[in-house]
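Structure in, sequence out. Go:
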């Protein structure tokens, strides 16, 4: 009887894993968006001052944190620096600087102080996908998470960002944010 319960539980875990890889957010592929427009160009759409507003959901699906970030992108040919200054609803602040290098085939690589190794990304149609490992600050547990970021460019130049953070393959957090040129607010 116990062996049957273990087998059933294992089968359920495998089924959930397979479904999550074949359906939903994790199943997206850059090729799914090749024909979408407008074309996302990091040098154009992550350039200059950008206002970002977002929320972070915890593992139970409830909002854990809200934030506003002032961002600024500067490019020199195929290399760029994107600075992010986060202001969280609990009063905490965080600074991050991404160093980006574009490839010739729509791919790019990025580094930041809290990213372990190098982030790998690809521009495809109206989207950008980036994957990386991040170490959370000590006051947030210091955990290392696997992150998948998807950015979707809208016709008006705004960007919708959705990120999933996983530990041991289990989703532990999700981020949803908007980004838009800061100068668009003055129109």
């Amino acid at each position: 009887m116990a062996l049957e319960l273990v087998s059933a539980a294992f089968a359920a875990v495998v089924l959930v894993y397979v479904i999550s890889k074949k359906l939903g957010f994790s199943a997206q592929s850059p090729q799914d968006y090749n024909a979408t427009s407008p074309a996302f160009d990091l040098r154009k759409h992550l350039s200059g001052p950008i206002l970002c507003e977002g929320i972070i959901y915890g593992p139970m699906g409830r909002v854990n944190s809200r934030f506003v970030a002032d961002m600024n992108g500067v490019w020199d040919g195929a290399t760029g620096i994107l600075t992010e200054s986060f202001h969280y609803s609990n009063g905490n602040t965080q600074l991050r600087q991404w160093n980006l290098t574009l490839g010739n085939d729509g791919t790019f690589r990025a580094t930041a102080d809290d990213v372990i190794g190098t982030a790998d990304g690809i521009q495809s149609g109206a989207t950008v996908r980036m994957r990386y490992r991040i170490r959370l600050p000590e006051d947030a547990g210091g955990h290392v998470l696997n992150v998948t970021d998807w950015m979707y460019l809208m016709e008006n130049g705004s960007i919708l960002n959705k990120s999933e953070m996983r530990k041991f393959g289990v989703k532990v957090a999700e981020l949803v944010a908007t980004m838009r040129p800061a100068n668009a607010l003055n129109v």
